[in-house]
Specification:
With about 170 residues, this protein is an alpha/beta fold. The chain has a single domain, classed as P-loop containing nucleotide triphosphate hydrolases (Rossmann fold, 3-Layer(aba) Sandwich). The protein has helices at about 15-25, 30-40, 45-50, 50-65, 85-95, 105-110, 125-140, 155-165; strands spanning about 5, 25-30, 70-75, 95-100, 145-150. Helix 4 runs parallel beside helix 5 (about 85-95). Bound molecules: shikimate-3-phosphate.
Length: about 170
C-alpha cells in the first residue's frame, strides 16, 4: 500500500507523513528530499540557478521513478498538483490525501523557516494567500479525501487518516 499526501507548504505533510508511515509500517518518502539527493543540491539553489519550471520537471521525473515501488507514504512538494501529469501519476500510486490549513495558520508555521524559495518575499502572508487561492481547485480536484490540520496535533491527524483508509 502507498499513500500520497498533498497540500500547501506548512500544511503538515512531513510530520504527519512520518507518523503515518511509522504507524502503518511503511517507508516515508518526500519528493523534495529525493530531488535534493538525486541532484546533490538544495531546492533553493535549483530555484535560484535554473528556475521554478526546471524544478517542476524534476518533480515529475522523481514521481515517475516511484511507480516501480510499493509500501510508502509520500509527502509531495506543495506545487506538484499544478501539473495534471503529476496528478495522473499519483492516481496510479495510491490514495491522495489533502492536508489543509488556513493561510494564517500556514504563515504561523513557516514564518521562521528559510528553506522555501517561494516564501522568501517581502510579504509572505500575501504570497501564501495568493498561491493558496490559485491552487485550491487543483488540490480539491486531486484529493480522494481531505483533512483540516488547523487545530489538530499531528498524531490525531494521522489517526484520522488511518480510520479513513480502513473505512474504504
Ligand atoms: C513548493 C513547496 C515546497 C518545495 C518548493 C516549492 C511549492 O515543498 O517543493 O519549495 O511550490 O509549494 P513543501 O510543500 O514540502 O514545503
Amino acid at each position: 500500500m502507498n499513500i500520497i499526501l498533498i497540500g500547501f507548504m506548512g500544511s503538515g505533510k512531513t510530520v504527519v507523513g512520518q507518523l503515518l508511515a511509522k504507524e502503518l509500517g511503511l517507508d516515508f518518502l518526500d519528493t523534495d528530499e529525493l530531488i535534493e539527493k538525486s541532484e546533490g543540491r538544495k531546492i533553493s539553489e535549483i530555484f535560484r540557478v535554473e528556475g521554478e519550471e526546471h524544478f517542476r520537471d524534476l518533480e515529475t521525473e522523481v514521481l515517475k521513478t516511484l511507480q516501480d515501488y510499493d509500501n510508502f507514504v509520500l509527502s509531495t512538494g506543495g506545487g506538484m498538483v499544478l501539473r495534471q501529469a503529476n496528478v495522473d501519476i499519483f492516481k496510479t500510486i495510491g490514495p491522495v490525501i489533502l492536508l489543509w490549513a488556513a493561510p494564517e495558520t500556514i504563515f504561523a508555521r513557516v514564518q521562521k523557516e528559510t528553506h522555501r524559495p517561494l516564501l522568501q518575499v517581502a510579504d509572505p502572508l500575501a504570497e501564501i494567500k495568493k498561491r493558496l487561492e490559485l491552487r485550491l481547485p487543483f488540490y480539491n480536484a486531486a484529493a480522494d479525501w481531505q483533512v483540516d490540520t488547523g487545530q489538530k496535533d499531528p498524531g490525531t491527524i494521522a489517526k484520522e487518516i488511518i480510520i479513513w483508509l480502513r473505512s474504504k
